[in-house]
Amino acid sequence: MRFLREQAKTLNYMVQYISPPLDLSFAALSDATRRGIIDQLGRGDASITSLADKFQMTLTGMKKHVQVLERAGLVVTQKVGRVRTCQLGKRGLKAEAAWIEAHRKLFEARFEALDEIISEMKQEGSDESAS
């Protein structure tokens, strides 16, 4: 029993403190507002104030969204005077796109295999009914 408790502590520690870049990116992109911010910044740099206005949000709320995007490396900010300007990060989404593509291919292959099995089952069923 003691081993299980120690194991649970270790697993919990891993869940709480290990955040690979993909986890940070997908967590950041899981929110519609943050995806909207990325879209907006794709058109050009913007201040946090202008983003907050565009998304009809408080400055505090927008700052929190931008911080999540910054932690994921998707956005960088620069403060000049009293204005904090946001722009897209330089790293892009290549790793995320590669992960999605690899898993898309895996699912596609599995669905093709399933289609073959279903076709074989239908063929066997029609052969039996013809007999």
TrEMBL record:
> What positions does the domain HTH arsR-type occupy?
14-108
Q: Which GO terms describe its molecular function?
A: DNA-binding transcription factor activity
Q: Which domain of life is it from?
A: Bacteria
Pfam families xref list: HTH_20
Q: Which InterPro entries match?
A: ArsR-like_HTH, HTH_ArsR_DNA-bd_dom, WH-like_DNA-bd_sf, WH_DNA-bd_sf
**Name by which UniProt lists this protein:** HTH-type transcriptional regulator
- Give the source species: Rhizobium tibeticum
